[in-house]
Amino acid sequence: MIAALLTCMLLYYALVAGSLTTAEVQQAPLPLLPGSAFIENAQAVWTCIGLGRLLLNSATVALGIAVGKLTISLLSAFAITYFRFRFRGAVFWLIFLSRMLPVEVRIVTTFEAIPTCSCPYACSWSRAAKTGSCRP
Length: 136
What we know:
By secondary structure, the protein is mainly alpha-helical.
């Protein structure tokens, strides 16, 4: 309960800071009430960094991950339910545990696996970055 309250307070504080002008943000204690520059600041951020494109990219990646996880889960559930094979229970738990890991946890191992697959001589990232090739 305390963590949820603290999180809500920090989000409110960030929204208040986003609604202030540059001069008001630079004052030592930030005010606790929102300012009047929220719309202008939001428009400036939207156009300056291309927030629409970034949000579309994030939505596309999230939708792709959700559809991929759902497809793999449905296919594996079908296989485990309708096919009889040895170690079916162990395979179920391995699939179940791997689906529970978020993509963010598995991304580092993916980055480690790609050079190993594309360069069978175990090329390192630093060598590939320096020379442009995985060859020794």
